[in-house]
Every structure is written in structure tokens, then in C-alpha cells.
Amino acid sequence: MIKVETADYPIYFGVESYAILGDFLNEKQYSKLLILTDSTCNELCLPHFLANLPTTIPFEIIEIEPGETAKDLATCEGVWSAMLDLELDRHSAVIAVGGGVVSDLGGFVASVYMRGIDCFLVPTTLLAMVDASIGGKTGVDVQGVKNAIGTFTMPQMVVIDATYLETLDPRELKSGYAEMLKHGLIYDEAYFNHLKNIAQVDFGDIETLIYHSVVIKNQVVQEDPQEIGLRKILNFGHTIGHAVESYYLTNPTKNRMLHGEAIAIGMVVEAYISTVILGLNNTTYQEIKESIQYIYGKQLFTQTDIAEIVEWLKFDKKNRAGEIRMVLLANIGQCFYNKEVSKDLIVKGFEDYLK
């Protein structure tokens, strides 16, 4: 049994984990379980989950719409209303089975329902396995602003079953892969060097790579659960990335952009900014840029796009007194947080991204 232990909850890997989950649920004697999922996972993932869950505790299933547009307070209110209608009490528990949206929203819904009930996470996408399900961040978007409302609430358990990755298309897999590249860039140069040559990566052993990313994120979170300091390094690429994602999410003329795709853009732009502020070696920057753009391609931005994306930066949670603050790289595996960055330099970063 592969396991990562955190200060608050265990993370189990593999189909054998369901027996442990079932034992835990039975021991706690929950009055009822709510299985929260989305319509895609309900069809593709829930049959496997239910077939492997050994418990006789009664459960209900609530299905939400898939995608980032469903990650809002309106969806939460619908779920809470359904929970009341289904008579879930304070001795009930939520099991969120799905990708990042389901993990974030499910954790948030549970953290405030009747002032908080237990939550379990069963991530079904690569992004959720290596990022969203780890570390206790919950939240929803407001008016396009990413995770504007949320809590730090640790789950009771996380079950990572790589079987679910068989349901994903290549684009979704690459979205999660961006977070793994980030883990290498901020923490483990050898890991990044392994991942950057995606054609040579053995995806038949993806669980080993997932485990490594989970260990990295857990080590950072353990030192700073509330993101007061060190945990901010996990936001590398996310200052720009979230702004890009919000811009695309709220602009009806733009095609859908996945979270990892936006973060990939953010990592390149923020790596360029790192060359100016922290002296990141230009050869290293070009290596990062070429590696990421080889995997994700190059998104075209007009000057209008860039100007509007920069405006979204004012909502970033790392900001202070109107100052835009980022996580920047001094080298691969070495980064610093709370670095103030000007809008002019951000524009130059986008311009270099486009070269």
C-alpha cells in the first residue's frame, strides 16, 4: 500500500485504498454520505468508484455541471439546498469524486455546511491528483476571479486511483502535467529535467510521477499550511496564469482554456520576469520556454488581450496594497516569493513569450 502521511490526513494510492476508505467510513458511522460529482464523472468514473466502495452507509449522489463555469456560489447554493432536502445532518460526510472543480467546490461546500462536515476527496483527473486534492484549499470563483471565496479545510482522506486517468483525453492530461512541471521548477531540478522531455516519459508508470508531485506539494504545505510564507511558491506561474484563465473564462469571444494551459503560459512569462528581477540565467529561461511551448504550443495574444489580462492581476491574492507580487525563479529548483513586479515588466514578459 502506497501512502503519503500529512499532519492532518492520509493520502492513499491504488485500488486497494478503497478498502481503507470503507473501513474508515464504517468506523465513523456517518449517518449518510453525499457523493458529489459532475455529469462527466458520473458517467465515466462513478461506476468504478461505487463498485469498489465497501460500505453499507446510505448515500445520495448530487451531480453538477462539468467545467470551471460551474465553480461558483450559485452551484454551491444548489448543492446546499439539495443537502437540506436530503436531510444531511452534521454527522454526514461529503465524498467529492471528480476533477479540480469538484474537489475545490466539494471541499468548500462541506467546510461550511452546518458549520463544517467531514469531506473525502477522490480525484479523477491528473490536475486534481497532483494539485487540487492536496493541501486543504477549497474555494469557488466570483465574477471570474479565481477562488475568490474559500477556506483552508483539510479533508479526512484522499484516495488517488490512477485508473481514472484512462477516462481523460490528452488535452486534460497535459493540463495536469503543467502542475507537475511547476513542482520541478520550484523544488526539484532533476524532476523537471525528467518531465520536460515528454516524449520520453513513461506514462505507464504515471503513478510514480504522481506520487513524487504529491510528496513535493505535501512537504511545502506541511511547513506552511495557511500560505503565510513558503506555500506561496506553489503559486509559481499562477499570478499570470489565473489572470489569463479569468480573461478567457469571462470573454465570450475566446475559446475554452484549461487551467494547466493557462499556468503553462504563466510559467513562461514569470520565468522571463525572473531573468530581470532575480537574474535567472537566460539560457535556463530559454530552456524553460522551449520545453513548455513544445508541450503546450504558443497562444497568440493581441496588445488588447495583454492589457486586459494585466487588469485581472489586481485580484490576485498575493497582492498587497495594490502591489502585484509574484513567485519568481533564481534557478530551477530555487524560487522566492513576494517579489514586486511592475505592469510594464509583465507586458514585456508577454512580448517575449510571443517571440
UniProtKB/TrEMBL annotation:
<dbReference type="GO" id="GO:0009423">
    <property type="term" value="P:chorismate biosynthetic process"/>
</dbReference>
<dbReference type="InterPro" id="IPR016037">
    <property type="entry name" value="DHQ_synth_AroB"/>
</dbReference>
<dbReference type="InterPro" id="IPR056179">
    <property type="entry name" value="DHQS_C"/>
</dbReference>
<dbReference type="InterPro" id="IPR030963">
    <property type="entry name" value="DHQ_synth_fam"/>
</dbReference>
<keyword id="KW-0456">Lyase</keyword>
<keyword id="KW-0520">NAD</keyword>
<keyword id="KW-0547">Nucleotide-binding</keyword>
<feature type="domain" description="3-dehydroquinate synthase C-terminal">
    <location>
        <begin position="176"/>
        <end position="319"/>
    </location>
</feature>
<keyword id="KW-0862">Zinc</keyword>
<keyword id="KW-0479">Metal-binding</keyword>
<dbReference type="InterPro" id="IPR050071">
    <property type="entry name" value="Dehydroquinate_synthase"/>
</dbReference>
<keyword id="KW-0170">Cobalt</keyword>
<dbReference type="GO" id="GO:0009073">
    <property type="term" value="P:aromatic amino acid family biosynthetic process"/>
</dbReference>
<dbReference type="InterPro" id="IPR030960">
    <property type="entry name" value="DHQS/DOIS_N"/>
</dbReference>
<dbReference type="GO" id="GO:0000166">
    <property type="term" value="F:nucleotide binding"/>
</dbReference>
<comment type="function">
    <text>Catalyzes the conversion of 3-deoxy-D-arabino-heptulosonate 7-phosphate (DAHP) to dehydroquinate (DHQ).</text>
</comment>
<protein>
    <recommendedName>
        <fullName>3-dehydroquinate synthase</fullName>
        <ecNumber>4.2.3.4</ecNumber>
    </recommendedName>
</protein>
<dbReference type="Pfam" id="PF01761">
    <property type="entry name" value="DHQ_synthase"/>
</dbReference>
<dbReference type="GO" id="GO:0046872">
    <property type="term" value="F:metal ion binding"/>
</dbReference>
<dbReference type="GO" id="GO:0005737">
    <property type="term" value="C:cytoplasm"/>
</dbReference>
<dbReference type="GO" id="GO:0003856">
    <property type="term" value="F:3-dehydroquinate synthase activity"/>
</dbReference>
<feature type="domain" description="3-dehydroquinate synthase N-terminal">
    <location>
        <begin position="62"/>
        <end position="174"/>
    </location>
</feature>
<dbReference type="Pfam" id="PF24621">
    <property type="entry name" value="DHQS_C"/>
</dbReference>
